[in-house]
């Protein structure tokens, strides 16, 4: 079993106001299905009203994330699944519910984490 990150940036979700309630309903339904299937680890959306900070090894804090990297926003779900094919199927279900493409990544296995 591997853990997979299924995510999308905020800009990918171009939803009309009229469709918003259906997207919320459908996306919550897919998450409930993942929970019922026992594959849900966690998920949520980045609170974009709270700016990121960067914390150094000495404990100092700097406003903002890495200046050279893309901003991290949008929504994500982590599922624990038996195969990449399973992950692709779940990503497609989430894409249908959210009405936007999803990015799929696998976490490297680390027996200590």
Q: If you had to describe this structure to a student in words, what would you say it looks like?
A:
With 113 residues, this protein is an alpha+beta fold. It has a single domain, classed as Alpha-Beta Plaits (2-Layer Sandwich). 29% of the residues lie in helices and 27% in strands. It contains two helices and six strands, in the order E-H-E-E-E-E-H-E. It has helices spanning 20-37, 84-98, and strands spanning 2-8, 40-45, 53-55, 61-63, 75-81, 103-106. A four-stranded antiparallel β-sheet has the order 2-5-1-6, covered by helices on one side. Strand 3 (53-55) and strand 4 (61-63) form a beta hairpin. Helix 1 (20-37) runs antiparallel to helix 2. The longest helix has 18 residues, at 20-37. This is Transcription initiation protein.
The CATH topology label is: Alpha-Beta Plaits
CA(first)-CA(last) distance: 14 Å
Can you identify the CATH class?
Alpha Beta
Number of domains: 1
Our Rg estimate from Cα atoms comes to 16 Å
Q: Trace the largest sheet across and list its strands.
A: 2-5-1-6
Work out the helix count. Answer: 2
Question: Care to count the β-strands?
Answer: 6
What is the beta-strand fraction?
25-35%
Round the mean pLDDT to the nearest integer and report it. 95
Order of helices and strands: EHEEEEHE
Name the poorly predicted regions: none
- The CATH architecture is 2-Layer Sandwich
The fourth-level CATH homologous superfamily is Dimeric alpha+beta barrel
Backbone structural class: alpha+beta
Largest sheet: 4 strands, antiparallel
- The geometry reads as globular
Helix content: 25-40%
Protein name: Transcription initiation protein
InterPro entries: Dimeric_a/b-barrel
